[in-house]
Amino acid sequence: MITSSANPQIKRILQLNKKAKTRYEQRVFVAEGIKMCMEAPKEQVEAMYVSESFLQEESRREKIQGYSFEVIPDSLFRTVCDTKTPQGILCLVKMPEYRLEDLWKPARACREGRENRGNPHLLILEGIQDPGNLGTMIRTGEGAGATGIIMDKNTVDIFHPKTIRATMGSLYRMPFYIAPDLPGAILSLKEQGISIYAAHLEGDMAYHQPDYRKPAGFLIGNEGNGLSRETAGMADTLIRIPMDGQVESLNAAVAAAVLMYEVRRQRDR
Amino acid sequence: MITSSANPQIKRILQLNKKAKTRYEQRVFVAEGIKMCMEAPKEQVEAMYVSESFLQEESRREKIQGYSFEVIPDSLFRTVCDTKTPQGILCLVKMPEYRLEDLWKPARACREGRENRGNPHLLILEGIQDPGNLGTMIRTGEGAGATGIIMDKNTVDIFHPKTIRATMGSLYRMPFYIAPDLPGAILSLKEQGISIYAAHLEGDMAYHQPDYRKPAGFLIGNEGNGLSRETAGMADTLIRIPMDGQVESLNAAVAAAVLMYEVRRQRDR
Questions:
Q1: Inter-chain contact A254–B250, Cβ cutoff 8 Å?
Q2: How many CA atoms are closer than 13 Å to the CA of B36, on its beta-carbon side?
Q3: Chain A residues closer than 8 Å to B40 by CB
Q4: pLDDT by residue (tens digit) across B34-76?
Q5: Same domain for A187 and A151
Q6: pLDDT, mean over chain A
Q7: pLDDT over 80 (residue A257)
Q8: Residue of B nearest to A207 (CA)
Q9: Same domain, A70 and A125
Q10: Which of B110, B242, B251 sits opposite A139 (nearest CB)?
């Protein structure tokens, strides 16, 4: 049992939750809650911590059989968590590592049983700021059969506690790549024959007009400012999500969902 | 200039921002920020407050010409705001009032220029808890040409500061109805010939199979638990949003967006 807030393990969890820099130095992130801990690939779980009251319930004890774990008193446990009402379990998980080319190769579980297995379907993010939006895009992406998510360095950290929570576990299954050079990555995709579409107010075509049964990637820009001119300029086709009334733009996660599910709809037929 | 935190106007703003009960007693809500204040129908703006530094910029002073307003010192202004970095302007706005039948009649600005003007396209919400989700659904609804949003008493308040912010102004243009009796309201819709669809894991049809060029309403349930059995049972058709991988559900605002934009897509053709 760890009882002191000065314990180095407690300090480490706190730092990992607070600082992206610490996460990338150690290549580890914090997964909180039963779902996120149980869905983590077991071989990637580096450490597990539970609260005293978590251990008191038999059904919960059963879940963590076979894991080694440390116990933390409830009051101390709460102080290391990002959530306001923690479920009493957290893990330190090794970061998954993908290369850019992993995102267009037939990948693992998330595409099993799909007709278009491995047919590239990518989301390419520039400067997304809201961690909840990013997490929701990853969750929606898995549901819609996306094969990977690429983001630039200005996008909020994928291992931000709020991002992790919003993925609802999809983080473990969606291949992703943080591009040090986004234009370079987009060029590589184009060389693979992947058509690049940019959601843009001045799009030439409605979003449902292109044929997405062919390999496709979608550029989604920052919540406030959209795509940079340079990045939008790399798209093969500018597409438009029609908007009624006085709506000037959609929430970024909503726009991504509309596009990815249109791919899903076309590929299902 | 108001300088004391004990000033009754200051106390009123605080209460309106904090308590749904106060909002409904006074039939007034707080709109924060330039966009939300400028898009409020002028005749519904009951009072306007600006911070001292807001007044110092000429471009901002111009925006509020023709309004009467009170000035509040910056430090006091911050204390009454829900946002962490307020823009220095807020309004008290009279609640818009709609009847259920307003939601399926050809309505105002938000549908102007639409081929299917007034063709009912409704979102019906049960127990939505996240104010950001609710606001995003209202914003997406305006964009997708929805004619109205119905919610039950267990849905988070539409005038919650976070909901208002997430609507990005669509709150002023999207007709809505808070149903004291949701099953009764759904029955009224069905009597009008509006087909009711429920997004459901056990749906019989993929969501893109029905013909949405006819009047349609979509039931969306609580983020954690989905629709109640009773409400789902009132649907004419259970529809399924296909999900790959291990995804068990989509974010409620994402599911609503996929459905509403499918209506938009079909009606555009």
A1: no
A2: 27
A3: none
A4: 999 999 999 999 999 999 999 999 999 999 999 999 999 999 9
A5: yes
A6: 93
A7: yes
A8: B265
A9: no
A10: B251
Is A1 contained in some domain? no
CATH number, domain containing residue A125:
3.40.1280.10
Mean pLDDT, all residues of chain B:
93
Cβ-nearest to A258 among B142, B242, B261 = B261
pLDDT for A220: 96
- Domain residues for A217? 100-268
pLDDT digits (tens, 9 = 90+) for A144-159: 999 999 999 999 999 9
Could you report the per-residue pLDDT of A100-134, keeping only the tens digit for each?
998 987 534 333 444 445 799 999 999 999 999 99
CB-closest option in B112, B136, B242 to A268? B242
Mapping DSSP onto H, E and C, the string for chain A reads: CCCCCCCHHHHHHHHHHHCHHHHHHHCEEEEECHHHHHHCCHHHEEEEEEEHHHHHCHHHHHHCCCCCCEEECHHHHHHHCCCCCCCCEEEEEECCCCCHHHHCCCCCHHHCCCCCCCCCEEEEECCCCCHHHHHHHHHHHHHHCCCEEEEECCCCCCCCHHHHHHHCCHHHCCCEEEECCHHHHHHHHHHCCCEEEEECCCCCEECCCCCCCCCEEEEECECCCECCHHHHHCCCEEEECCCCCCCCCCCHHHHHHHHHHHHHHHHHC
Beta carbons of B142 and A247 less than 8 Å apart: yes
Same domain, A88 and A207: no
User: What CATH number is attached to the domain comprising B68?
Assistant: 3.30.1330.30
Can you tell me the distance from the alpha carbon of B138 to that of B197, in angstroms, rounded to the nearest whole number?
18
Place of tokens 């306001």: A84
Pair A172, A247 in one domain? yes
**A-chain residues near B112 (CB < 8 A):** 245
% of residues, chain B, pLDDT over 90: 88
A160-195 tens-digit pLDDT:
999 999 999 999 999 999 999 999 999 999 999 999
Cβ <8 Å between A264 and B242: yes
For a pLDDT cut of 70, what percent of chain B falls above it? 95
Do residues A168 and A44 share a domain?
Answer: no
Beta-bridged to residue A92, according to DSSP, are A30, A47
pLDDT attached to residue B269: 65
Q: Are B222 and B240 in the same domain? A: yes
Provide mean pLDDT across the span A238-264: 96
Domain count, chain A: 2
Flag whether B17 is in a domain.
yes
